[in-house]
Design a protein that fits this description.
elongated; 8 strands; 4-stranded antiparallel β-sheet; alpha+beta; single chain; 1 helix
Length: about 140
């Protein structure tokens, strides 16, 4: 009976761990494909060794004119509050491009990156996609 219990606990542990990995992947490489001025956009944020790294990529459509990115990184304090750590903005007119930004973090803890991508088209309209990704460092 003990061997059966150990086997069932082991299987349950494997299932839970595999579900956790799937969640992290979906959160860190989400692709948006319902856009007017781009065929897709992807968002990622990682935090390790006291460095935060944000990557945003897009593939512009025929109407694409400009991409604007704003990154805001915060650190969780006192379990419920967030402290601003870093903000960065940039623009790009390359139709198939992206942004890569690294920044030192404020020690170990939970970090939240808000990645806001605004795509502007030749008709003057724009669409904004925002992703919020949390990571442990």
């Amino acid at each position: 009976m003990k061997k059966l219990t150990k086997a069932l606990v082991g299987i349950l542990l494997i299932v839970v761990l595999s579900m956790t990995n799937l969640t992290v992947f979906a959160d860190n490489g989400e692709i948006e494909s319902r856009l007017s001025h781009a065929s897709e956009a992807s968002f990622a944020f990682s935090a390790s060794n006291n460095v935060g790294c944000a990557d945003v990529a897009y593939v512009g459509s025929a109407s694409f004119v400009r991409a604007d990115l704003h990154i805001k990184v915060e650190k969780k304090t006192l379990l419920v509050f967030w402290k601003d750590v870093y903000e960065w903005s940039a623009s790009n007119t390359v139709s198939n491009g992206g942004f890569h930004q690294t920044h030192p973090l404020d020690g170990s803890g939970t970090y939240r990156a808000t990645l806001t991508l605004t795509l502007t088209g030749s008709d003057g309209t724009s669409e904004t996609i925002e992703r919020v990704i949390e990571r442990e460092c």
